[in-house]
C-alpha cells in the first residue's frame, strides 16, 4: 500500500535508504523451476553501478547482490527470493550540510512534509540508489520471459537527439560508449556535451527509447491495467522521469486516423506500427516501443539559494558525488522496469482463459 | 487482478460492454459521512455524454446513473456504492459487419487473441462507453477531496495548438464552446477543423492539459506509487491515450539543472514550477499540471483494407456513430481519473504518520 | 480495501443493503471461454432464498439474478461479470422501531460507532441478504472448477448432532428435508426442535460440515495464504459464524503425533486423513473437510432490554421476518464461499511453476 | 499474490528457508514518527527462540534481528523496514535422509507436487522457522497500537485443560513456567506430560487462548474482512493450526439466542461477552478472545513407514531437533499475528469516515 511494491503476480518489494547498512528486496511470485543465471543479474547491476565511467557519479559501490532465499541449487523454488545489496561506501558526512536544508527540486521538502521525519543522508529513500533493487528484480524477470528481448538506449541528451530510425541502428553498439547511444557519432557528441555540462557544475536531461521484441500476443489487461498504462507507471516511477509516450506518442496526436491506422497483413501483423505494439491495452505481437523523458538532475555543483527547516533563506552548494546526466545509468533501470511489467502480465495472461 | 479496478483505498471497479443491458460499477472505500450532491455527478456524466454537440458521436444515450447502495438519506454510509447506467440506444445491428472482421488499430484483434472470444458489438468492453463509469467514480471522488480543484481542457487538435500560458486563460470559458478550449479564438479554429475532418470521414488526435489546484502537501507514495506515476497510469488507461507528461515533461529534458530547478520561497512554495507540483513523487502544494496525448480515433468513415477472422483480406468501411475527435469528450474523463487518483492518495496519506 | 471484495485472481466484489433497490456484485477474473449454465446459478440462489420452507424466514424474495455483462452468447468473455438481484419485498417500516435502537448482539452498534451513520433498515449492509451475491459468485466459481465437488450439510442444531461418519452418509438426501441434514432420522429431530424454538420466539445455533472431493494437488499458497487459512477466513466472514476447524480440528489437539500422522500409500494418497486434505497449506489430493460454527441468530421474538442512540435503556421486541436457525439456509453460502476459495487458488496455482 | 505477504495497510512480507543463509522480511506501511523500542522486539523473538527450555527443540539459534532500513535515529520514517535474521545453526546434513523421502503429515509431498522442486533442508520454506519474521512484524505492530494489550497462553496440552475463567487467571504468571500456562498447578502437569511424550519420541497437540484488551471500537471491515475472519486467517496460517473459534465458538452453537445475546449496559458495553468483542465483524470495545487449535507436531522420533519420490515404501525415523509440543513456543506467534491484524485494521479504520 505504501508504494514499495511493484507488480501483481510477479511482485518486487524493495527497502533501503542510500546510507543505511544495505538495500534489498523480495521477489514474490517468481515461478518455480527456472534455472537462474546469476551472472546475468550481476551484469545488469554493473551497468547501473556508480563509478563505471568518467561521465557518471564517482561514488564507488561494488553493488554485489546477495541472494538469501528462493533459489536452491540454482533453480527457483517458487518461494520468495530475498536479496540484499550492501551500501559499502556511504560518506554520510557529505550530507551533514543538508540535514536541515531543503535542496531545490529534490524530495527533501516533500518527504519532510509528508512524514514529519526523514533520513536526510544521501536523499535516504528518495535516492536513486533504490533503483539497484529494481535492476535485480528486472534481471530475474528477464529470465522468466526469456524469449522477449528488451533494449533501451539514450535517444537524446539536452538538445542533442539521435535522429535515426530504430531499423537503422545497431544495438550491439549501445555498450560501446559510456553514453549508451547506439550511434557512435551521436554518442561522441553527447559525451562531449555531458563533460562540458559537468565542468560547469551543471546537469542536463535527456530521453531514453526502449524497444521490446518478440512480445507474445495477449499481454495486458483491460481496462485500467492496459499494458502501456502499466509501462507508463513503471517508467514514471523512476527517479527524474517526467514523461512517457508509446508508439506515435505526442507526435501522433497531429495525425489523421487515415494516416495513423496500422493496416493488417494477412498474418495479423501490421504494415505500419504507430500503435507501438499495443492495441486496446493488449500486445498485438508487433514491437513495443516507447520514449521516457528524464529531467536534469536537481543536484548541481553551483551555488543556489534555498530554505532550511526553519524557513530561513540559505545558500547551498551541491556536494557529494552525482551524475551530470542520469540518462546513461538509467538505461538498465528502464529495461528492468519493462521486464517487471512484461513478466507480470505474462503470468497474468496465463489465467485469462480456460 | 484482471484490471477492472482502479485505486487502493478509494477503489472503483467497473463492468459492462457497449451493447449489453447496462454498464456500471462499485466504489469501495468511500468514507462515510459525505453528503453527496448527486446533480453534480449527473452533470459530469452529461459532459461526457454522446450527442451533446454537432462535433461528437450522435449516438443518443441519456446516461442516467442509478445508485443502488452506499448512500442513505443523501449521505455516504461507508459501504460500497453500486451503480448502473443503462445502455438505452444500442444499435447492435450497426456492428454485424465487424463480427468477423478486425478493424485496423482497434482492440478487436487483440481481444480475440487474448480471450479466444469477444463481444464484438460496439467494441464490447473496449468501447469508450466504459469511461462513463469512470466519470461517476471521479465525480464522487471530487466530493471526497472538495477543496482540490481539477480543470482540464483541450490544448491541441491536430496541429492546432493553444499557445497561451495557463495564467492567461479564463477557465470559465471552457464550457462556452463544444471543443472545450478556454480560448474562444482557438476554439473556433479547432471546431472548424474538426468539422472539416468529419466531412472527410476522417478523424484527428489532440492533447488535453489538466491543472490541479489546492493540492495538499504530502500526497503520493514513494517509490513505485509516485503521484505522477499513478496519474500517468490513470491517463494512459483512457482509450486512445498514447502519452503523458508532467510539469516540464519532454521539453524539460532539454534544460540544464540550473535552469530547471524550482527555487524556494521562504514559505515553502517555489518561484517557478517546472516540477509540476510534485517532487520525489509527492505533492509539494504547488499546482499540478500535465498533458495527455490522444491519437486519432481508429474508426474512420473511409474504406480501409483489413482482415477477417479467417485471415482473409477484406475491405471495410466504418459505420456506426463515432467521434471525429475524442478530445472534447475526453475532458471530463481526464478530470475524473485525476480525481480518482487524488482521492486515493489523500486517503493513503492519512495513514502515513502516527 | 474496505472489505467488500473476496479473492485475488477470481475476485468477487459485492454491494447492497437489505432494503435498497437492489444488491449485486462484480466477478472480475473469471477466465474467458466457459459456457455457463445459468440455471445452476439460479438453483443455488433458490437454495438460499428466504421463504422456501416453514422453518426459515418468511420474507418473500424472488431472488432472481440478472447478469449485465461479461457473458456473450452464453460464454464468459474474460471481462467482468456484473449482476444485480432486486430487493423486491423490502418492508422498511418493519424496521422503524430500530432506527435509534441498538439490537443486542447485532451489528447496529458497531456500524454506528465505526461510520457515524448507518442504513438501519433491515440491518443494511450487515444483513445476511448480502450473502445472496456470494452464492452467485460461488455458483460461477463452481463452473470454473467443474471437477471439484463441494457438499455441505447440517451437522448439528443446538445439542442435536449428526453422529455419523461422512462415509456412512448419502448426500443425495441432503435436499430431502428442510434442515439439509443427510440423515433423515436426525433431520426430523432437528426440524422438530427448530419448530419448537421458533414457537418460543427464540433461535438456536448449529454447525455445518463441508466436504470437498476431487481437489487437485497443489492448491494453496504458503505462507499466509494457506488453503485452510483462506477457507477459514471465507467461512468466518459469513454472518453469525464463530468458529472453523479443518481436518481433525480441535479434537485433534488431544492426539499424539504417532496417532495423528497420516501415513502414505504408495500412490501418494494417505491411509488416514486427519489432515483434512491439506498439508503445509497445500492440498494433497485427499478430501478436504471442515466444520463451521454458527451462533444462534440475534433477532429473537422475545422482549429484551437494550439501549438507544441516546444511551437510554429501552425495551424492544424483534419484529420482521427472521430465521429461527440460520444453518439450513447457510448451506449454499458455505458451499459458495468454498467454491470461491478453490477457484481462486486453482487459478493461482497455474502460475506457480514455469 | 504468492502468499508471502500479510496485511493491507500494515503489510509484512517475509522470505527465507530454514537452512538458507538468513530469513527476513519487509514491513511496508508502518507509519512515520514511532519511536521504536528495539529491545522489546528482540524480547519477543527470544520468547519464540528454539533452545529456551528443556521442553522445546534444542536447535541453537541466537535469532538476532538486524534492521536494515526504515528506522532513523530510533524513529520510524514511513519507509519500508527491512530486516534479516541469520540462520546460524543450520545442520543441513541432519536432513539428507529426507532428501527424497516425504515425511508423513508434513509439507514435503505437497510442496513437491506444487512446485516440482523443493529445498528439503529442514522443511525449507514450510519450516516454522519462518514464524520468527512474523514475531518481528508483530512486535513492531504492537508499538503502533500501543494501548491495545494482547496476551496469549497455553490453554490445553493433549487432554490436559486449563479449567479456569480468564478473570481467575494472573497473566503475570504466564512466563513463570516453560509451558506458558498462567495457572502454575496446571502448568506443572502439562510440563510433566510434555516430558513424558518427548521421552516416548512422540509429540502432542494443544490449544492457545488469546485475550485482547483495550481494543478501540470500530476495527474490522465488513463484509469479507470481518475482524474475526482476518484473525482466523492469521491464526490458521500458523504452522500446525487446525482450528479457530472466537467468543462462544463451537460451544455457543448449542445455545439459544435468548441465552447468547449480549445485553447492553447504558454506556454501550455489554453485560456478557459471548460475542468475543466483535459484532458484525467490527470491534465493540469489549475484550476480544479466541482459541487456536494446534495439532501434534508431525516429526516424531519413532519409526514410521512412508514413501520416497520414486513412490517406494521406505521406513524413516525423525532426526533433527524438534518440539514435542509446539504450543509453548507458539504463544508469541499467536500474539504477533494478532498484533499484525489489529495494527492493520487500526490503520484501515482511520479512513472509514470523513
TrEMBL record, chains A, B, C, D:
UniProt cofactor note: Reduced FMN (FMNH(2)).
Organism listed in the record: Gillisia hiemivivida
Keywords on record: Amino-acid biosynthesis, Aromatic amino acid biosynthesis, FAD, Flavoprotein, FMN, Lyase, NADP
Entry EC no(s): 4.2.3.5
Signal peptide: none
Ligand binding (NADP(+)): 48
Name the UniProt record assigns to this protein: Chorismate synthase
One Gene Ontology molecular-function label: FMN binding
Pathway(s) annotated for this protein in UniProt: Metabolic intermediate biosynthesis; chorismate biosynthesis; chorismate from D-erythrose 4-phosphate and phosphoenolpyruvate: step 7/7
Lineage: Bacteria, Pseudomonadati, Bacteroidota, Flavobacteriia, Flavobacteriales
Entries under InterPro entries matching the protein: Chorismate_synth (IPR000453), Chorismate_synth_AroC_sf (IPR035904), Chorismate_synthase_CS (IPR020541)
Gene: aroC
UniProt cross-references to Pfam families, sorted A to Z: Chorismate_synt (PF01264)
Cofactor: FMNH2
